[in-house]
Every structure is written in structure tokens, then in C-alpha cells.
Design a protein that fits this description.
Shape: globular
Oligomer: single chain
Radius of gyration: 20 Å
Order of helices and strands: EHEHEHEHHEHEHEEHEEHEEEHEHE
CATH superfamily of the largest domain: Thiamin diphosphate (ThDP)-binding fold, Pyr/PP domains
């Protein structure tokens, strides 16, 4: 069915169709619309879930962990400081191999206090063992949330998934949305190590040096196995519903001498810049990584690379640019732009390409005399 919806509403509708048994919720701008919409579904009977309004984001993730450990599907959503408040519990979710699905509406971290888009909140959690995917359209937010449940709950994965969407520039933007009749696309959840109250057991969580590293290796092995599960899920989604996705979203990259690489909505904005630059004779393409964990394989060899980071690791650099340096031994033109919702247009992105200087870092809007 076709409608017009915000990114937040699209995520909520996907959750309604996935039908989690437990949803734990705490409001935070600009995510609140997701859990409000879900609360409405529960109230009107179109979603038969246990809805738990908790006192904090830390408690929201703790509630999801407890519920997921019993073998039921769970969901929560957050943003920015709420995600930081969950930090400890994110490790518990992945370490316990629990397929929690969470939407994170990307928002800057204070101070100063700011409610607009930035990716530092999610990328600060990149080592917690969660799969992370960044979406760029309302349709993609809906489709990816549906796929996230199937990916997380696959027995070769059993890791939590974070679906990231840019605050306001996607969460509150109205675009067309085609919903699907889900059918059996998401199989029933079967957690092999679920807690069974009919078969009580004792659990000793203290893990010594002779065993601890094995648990960490199991997370890494599952992260690697997730690549094929993601590919299989996306293939099944395309065959069932007709919309195709991949680890990356590529636009006019086949013959490109220059690649613009950015997460989220900047990756879509770059497509307009690509068309402008092509008319100027610059052979450029947009390569948007959808998945950040596991990190995708990118065809970047022999090309100039312009990376736009809506984040920063202080004293080190843009997280995406530095990931490319480490993985592919390239020296991109690194642009730090869009922090805290700073406006960046397709004309600005075109300018980044025209003035690119490989191996340098530039902060958009910051000049030498500032």
C-alpha cells in the first residue's frame, strides 16, 4: 500500500508488522515519534505487544535484554544521549548473543545542547558488537527495519542490530512509502540458548581468562557470518517485494575516477552533486555504505576519494575516512561536515569534489583565520 510518511513513522510501521513480543520505550528527541506511534498501535489493538514505558534508556535496553533472553522478539528506539546511556547494556546484548533490534535516530551529542543530525552517537558505539546499518530514505528505513529482525534472529548471527536514520533530515521528512504484506518473510524467532522457566538452571556469569576470549571470538565470527546472512536476506527481500539493497548503494560508480563516500542522507544528496559534476566532465560517483558493521568491501582502488564524515573522533579524524585509510590503505580527501545539523547542500558536495586534496582533512565552514 502506498502512503506518505516520515522516517519515524516508517520504522514504527515496520515494527508493527514484525510484531515483537516486548517493546521497551523511553522518549528522546528526535526519536520520540517512533515509540509514540508504536504505543498507539498497542493501544488500538493493531499490535499485540507488551509495551514497557521505562524510566531511562539504560532500563529500556535492560528490559529488552531480559525479554530477549527468554526467546521472544524485542525492539526499542533511542537517540544521542539516550544511546550513550545504554552504552554498558549494548555490550551485554551482544555478549549474550541476543537479537535485539533498535532504531537510533542520529543526533549530536552535547554540550552544547543540540537536537539535530550527527553520526557521532552511533559511531561511538561501533565496538560494542552490534551490527549497524545507515539508511537514507523513508522507504529504506521501513524495508531495512523489516530485514533487521530477520538478520538479527538468524542462527548464524544472533547479534543485535542498530538501524540508524538521520535526525529531522530523515526522521521527520515526508516521503512516499510502499508497505508490504509481510507473510512469512520474518520466520518465528528461535533462540537456542533461551532461558526456559519450565527447565530452571543456574547461571555463572563470571568468565575467567581461559574462556573469555572465546566468547569474544564467537561475536567476531558471527559478525563475519552476518555478511552472507545480510546478502541472503536482501536477495530474498528483492525476490519477494521487488526492492533491491546491498552492503552499499552505488550511483554512477562504474566508470568513476572520483568517489564521494558518505553515510546516510548525505550519500543521497551526493547523487545530485554527481549529476552536476558529470555535466562538467568530472567522472564522479556516489558510493554510500549502508552497513558500517560489518564494514563493507569497497571498490576504491585507483580512484580519488572524497569522504564526508558527519562525525569526529577527536585527536584522530573522521571515523569513516579513518576506517577507509585503515582498511584500504588510501589517502582520501576528508571533509568534516554537517555536525550538529550544519547545512550541507549538493552544491557544497560538488565543491568538495572540485577542490579535493587527497591526504588532507578539511572542516567545512572553518577557515584558517577563525
Amino acid at each position: 500500500m502506498r502512503s506518505v510518511a516520515t522516517g519515524n513513522k516508517a520504522v514504527a510501521e515496520a515494527v508493527r508488522q514484525a510484531n515483537p513480543a516486548v517493546i521497551a520505550a523511553y522518549p528522546i528527541t528526535p526519536q520520540t515519534e517512533i515509540v509514540e506511534s508504536i504505543a498507539g498501535f498497542v493501544a488500538d489493538g493493531t499490535l499485540a505487544s507488551q509495551y514497557i514505558p521505562v524510566e531511562s534508556e539504560h532500563s529500556a535496553m535492560a528490559a529488552c535484554i531480559g525479554a530477549s533472553a527468554t526467546g521472544v522478539r524485542t525492539f526499542t528506539a533511542t537517540s544521542s544521549h539516550g544511546l550513550l546511556y545504554m552504552h554498558e547494556m549494548l555490550f551485554w546484548a551482544s555478549g549474550a548473543r541476543l537479537p535485539v533490534v533498535m532504531a537510533n535516530v542520529n543526533r549530536a551529542v552535547g554540550p552544547g545542547w543540540n537536537v539535530w543530525a550527527e553520526h557521532t552517537d552511533a559511531l561511538a558505539q561501533r565496538d560494542t558488537g552490534w551490527l549497524q546499518v545507515f539508511v537514507a530514505t523513508v522507504q529504506e528505513a521501513y524495508d531495512t527495519t523489516l530485514m533487521a529482525f530477520r538478520i538479527a534472529e538468524h542462527n548464524d548471527v544472533l547479534l543485535p542490530v542498530m538501524v540508524n536514520l538521520d535526525g529531522f533530515s530523515l526522521s521527520h521528512v515526508m516521503q512516499s512509502l510502499d508497505t508490504v504484506t509481510l507473510g512469512d518473510f520474518i520466520p518465528p524467532m528461535v533462540l537456542p540458548h533461551r532461558i526456559d522457566t519450565a527447565n530452571p538452571q543456574g547461571y555463572g556469569p563470571l568468565t575467567g581468562p581461559e574462556e573469555f576470549y572465546k566468547f569474544r571470538w564467537e561475536i567476531e565470527r558471527s559478525m563475519r557470518d552476518a555478511r552472507s546472512v545480510i546478502a541472503g536476506t536482501e536477495k530474498a527481500f528483492a525476490e519477494t517485494f521487488g526492492r533491491k539493497y546491498g552492503m552499499t548503494d552505488e550511483y554512477r560508480c562504474e566508470d568513476a575516477d572520483v568517489l564521494v563516500i558518505a553515510l546516510g542522507t548525505f550519500g543521497k544528496e551526493a547523487e545530485v552533486a554527481v549529476d552536476i559534476l558529470r555535466k562538467e566532465g568530472i567522472k564522479v560517483g556516489s558510493l554510500r555504505p549502508r552497513w558500517f558493521r560489518p564494514f563493507p568491501d569497497l571498490d576504491v582502488k585507483g580512484r580519488d576519494i572524497v569522504v564526508i564524515d558527519r562525525d569526529y573522533s577527536f585527536g584522530f579524524g573522521g571515523v569513516l575516512a579513518d576506517s577507509l585509510r585503515a582498511r584500504y590503505r588510501v589517502e582520501p580527501s576528508s571533509i568534516i561536515a554537517g555536525l550538529g545539523g550544519q547545512e550541507v547542500t549538493y552544491d557544497d558536495i560538488a565543491s568538495f569534489v572540485r577542490t579535493r586534496m587527497p591526504g588532507t582533512e578539511t572542516w567545512f565552514g572553518v577557515h584558517d583565520d577563525v
